[in-house]
Amino acid sequence: MIAEPTLLSRSVQKENSVVDVSSCASVHHVSSERNENRQKTVRGKRKARECSENAKRKHSKSSNGSLGRAEYEQLKNGDVEAVTLFEVVSMGRNAMQAVVDDWIDAYSGDRDSALLDLISFFIQCSGCKGMVTAEMFQSKKGADVMSKMVEDLDEDTGLQYKKFLAFPWILTVTWPLDMDSGEYPLIMSGLYWKRFRSHFCEFVSVLVAQCQNCVIFDGYLLNTLISLLTELSDSRVRAFRHTCTLAAVKLLSALINVALNLSISVDNSQRLYEVELAKMTSKRASPRLDRIQRKISELQDRKCEIENMMDAIFKGVFLKRYRDVIPEIRAICMEELRVWMKLYSSVFLNDSYLKYVGWMMHDKQPDVRLKCVLGLQALYQDQSSSKMDLFTIRFKERMISMTLDKDHEVAIQAMRLLMVISQSCEDVLSPDDHKNVFQFVYCSHRPLATTAGEFLYNRLLSNHELSKPRDGASDQESHRELLLARVQALINFHTENELHQHVLYLVDSLWDSAGALLKDWTGLTSLLLPHTSCQEQATALSSAEEAFVIELISASVRQAAEGPPLSGRGAGKKVINTKEKKIQIDDCTKLTEHFVKVLPELLSKYSEDSEKLSSLLKIPQYFQTDACDHENSQCVLALLAQLEAAVDRHTDVGLLEAAARSYQSLCAQDLPWHSLARPSFDRLIQHWTDTLGTRLRESLSDGCFTGNEDSTLEILSTLKKLNVFIVAQDLSKWSLYELGTRLLDVEIKHSGLPMEVTIEALRCMCSCILWKLNTFGEGLTSRESALQQRSQLRAFCEKCHRCLSHAEQLVREQAFMCLSDVLIAHNYQLQMWDSSAGTPLLYTPDPKLQKALLSFVVEHVFTSPEQDTHSSKVSESESECGDGRLEDLHRRRNLLAAYCKLIVHSVLEMSMAAELFKQYVKFYNDFGDIIKETLNRTRQMDKMESARTLVQCLQQLYLRLKQEQDRGNTCSSRVQTYSSIKELARRFSLTFGWDQIKSRESLAMIHRDGIEFVFKGFVQQSEKHSPPYISYLTILSEFSSKLLKPDKKTIYSYLQKFAGEQVINNREESWMPLIYYRASLMGTAEGEDAISFISSDTNKQPSLSNRSRSQVNSEGDQRFLSLSSEPKGNELLKSSEDSKVQQAPLSREQLTSSLASDKVLRSSDEVDVDTVDIDG
What we know:
Layout: H1 7-15, E1 26-29, H2 32-40, H3 47-50, H4 54-57, H5 69-77, H6 85-91, H7 96-109, H8 111-125, E2 131-136, H9 142-147, E3 151-154, E4 159-166, E5 169-175, H10 191-211, H11 221-232, H12 238-278, H13 286-321, H14 327-343, H15 345-348, H16 351-360, H17 366-381, H18 389-401, H19 408-424, H20 431-438, H21 446-461, H22 475-497, H23 503-510, H24 515-518, H25 521-526, H26 535-538, H27 543-561, H28 578-605, H29 610-616, H30 633-649, H31 653-666, H32 674-699, E6 700-701, E7 704-705, H33 709-728, H34 736-750, H35 755-775, H36 783-803, H37 809-831, H38 847-860, H39 865-871, H40 878-904, H41 914-918, H42 924-941, H43 943-967, H44 978-990, H45 1000-1014, H46 1032-1036, H47 1045-1059, H48 1061-1064, H49 1072-1082, H50 1090-1098, H51 1106-1115, H52 1118-1122, H53 1148-1157
Parallel strand pairs: 1-2
Antiparallel strand pairs: 2-5, 3-4, 4-5, 6-7
Helix pairs in contact: 7-8, 7-10, 10-12, 11-12, 11-13, 12-13, 12-14, 14-17, 16-18, 17-19, 19-21, 21-23, 23-27, 27-29, 28-30, 29-31, 30-32, 31-33, 32-33, 32-34, 33-35, 34-35, 35-36, 35-37, 36-37, 37-40, 38-40, 40-42, 42-43, 43-44, 43-45, 45-47, 49-50
GO molecular function: chromatin binding
Protein name: Cohesin subunit SA
Domain SCD: 318-402
């Protein structure tokens, strides 16, 4: 009979010294004959391994199925002799060969004992903390045995057990309940356990390799082992299933190697047979032929036997586990299936097995999909595509779609898979497929973009047809032709896709694969310049193609000088190593030496094309200062002359910005060219300043602007140029502020100045102020200097204040942005001021200016949808309307962000943000993120003041609604409804987050001010009507859920002091908001609703029926407002000192003492924190 795993059987086993329950894998052999054989086996040096491991396992120091680090080091150093296969395998590969050879010797002497040791090893590698019992199968009938093959829980002992057939034994594995949730060696972290996994797989491979010429074909070892692994891989316990699945698939891989060796032996014997058979009859040895034929038959039989074993493992393990719930097991199956197909393609590389890879490419886990893609890469690289035609047709769309995988590594490897398929199978991917895949060069994830760039380079730019030289062409001409062909192919790709206008991202994607092409600046510039020996190639490019080549050169120069990542690709600046730094310096030196000579000629050729000049003028920014020398002085002078000519001729903003940055780089103090570039720059600015001054004297007379059209255009263009250059460098010494003041004074006093000139004058003056604020305090400043700077700052702010009421909207917006920039810069200058530098520059915006800024934001940012629609009617089409709305939204977001910065940087009072917070719900889609971030920043600055701002916001909205209702204007679009105010309060409460302790004081103050606001002027005894603002309590109840339990009691006590017990118990309909608010404070139990408290309170009153309560729930909160009484003239309560109760006054000391006494009333499950004083 099969012994049940009960406590009695375990005690008997322990008495016989065969099973140790604390051991990891104890094996109890029922047969007394086997016990005798195991005790008689002695082999000298490895006696412990050749005998039954169970007799000595109770002396093992490891009680959890694994070695500690100390034991492992001892075993590694040879201090302690290993007594189990598990311990020997843990030592590493050095001991693997010897232990397998010793085990084979033990198996040859006593195969049952050695095989039980091997079974024990696999159980122990699963991390089993239980035991294994075994008995013979001979006396059992098939039906009786199969009825006992179970995996269940023994309720008497509390142990789990599994009985299964591992011929010729019936094994019972028993383990504690906690094994299901515990760790086991294959999933444990650390370098030691990672090595153990590789050692475990190596052991299986070495075992089969060493046994392939002897015991592997005895019909006993592998049959038992396959039966064991098949049964345990089907267990409900993850540890058994994972470990034995890995062992089974590794066993199949090892058997494939045996089958391959047998195939080689069969081929060799077959050739030997053919050689012998080809001999003459007189020299042919018939016995030898018979021997060879018998050997061939024997090898083929063995090969067939091995394939049957492989088929048994595949059907018994793989087909059940490749869809296992554990992703690691599925990944193991897919990884090994690729090995089988690659090693034994004659059997496994067909559609019957490939379909599993195709199916698992849809797996939910990225690791499984990655294993499938990597396996397919290896198969397509082995030129096995002819056997995969049907698979490729069936799953091509899936492989292409995996480039869009949400896991970046899977997408990258899918791209590489398509690259391999494109190389091995020319006609599989259609031109449309290639076009869709090549679009990934513009994706935001740089590794995927570079992989797509490599695919693009290999497919289009490395085409053999492009590299065919022309007959009779020289090496230089051949190189030029090849370069031109590649550039034209790249131009065709870029223009046909029409996905992206930035060549910089295309260059970044191609940089790793086509770096040599992109760094060939000599060849690229030769395509743009005339060439005496190859005039046709120089003129082959059209104007659009030349523009692309120029942008390609500019992007490659930037990539070589700065490198990735670009904006949108990567989280930050990449840290480059020494080798990459050296390559970068060499590239910068190379481009500097080349372009300092070639760039003047290019600028001269394209002097009339502002778009091409803008790209070319970016190149001097990346010149390497170390490569600059005085030998190139003439080239530098030519470059400066072309720069000056370009900025004099053009007024394009992009061109001017590129030129300003180039001048800034060339005028650097540490550059040898500073002595040449700085005078040229000064002459240019002086020329513009003189021109502007002359034109102003001609156009300004008697305080009015009288300039003609030519003068106006020249003034405007000069101001634009100066405004662009003043951003890059300080131009204060040219007195530009005074020139701008003259123009602005004329506009303020008499108007008539063109709108564009006014805007440019504001920008010029703002930049001058910012530079002065930046340089103020660098040296020791005097009081007179500080007063002068403050006067200038005040005068500029007053001028901008006047411009806020200008007739033109663009002027108003520019004045607002200038004011915001200047005030924020001044605030930053005060925060960073060093007291040792002297007197700081102090300036505070006056209240009129603050109100003007607020009014501007309300009028220009929070516009109604009707106004937006009306303003977009001038568009000619729906697409233009959409673009106009987006641009208008972007403009308004910038204005709102500028105002929010003023509040966050403490330039304006925090209470000025109340008007912004009112619009949080109404304009949530457009400005919700900006307003929410402002709210969070203000709360970080001052929690109490931020809460007061929220209270002010809600109370102002409520009072405005009351006033409109009193007047009878219930449909005004300017007033928010009661439900919208309540929703706004709910949104405000959500911003406090989950940390209730952090927001205790703020929330308590909100409730305190709300109660005082509602009951201001209310007399408990004489008043029969409810307070006029009682419906505000429903709005206030939105914040109750954020209160701590003791704070709710304190707030309720505070409410009782104002309202009185008689009023609180009133059940009239006009007092329903108070009932609702009271219920929200009393609803402390988890999951309880405020309405349930209303019901429980009102059940005592027969006047409030179920019908009336249902009306309250169905009609909504608007009813609370309409039922309240009407006394008018109440104003917003600013502070707790202004609110006084006529009867039963409550002082702060009384309130504090009542809050403190509330600590005694806390239950054990409440938060033990200090009570909040809601008065302070």
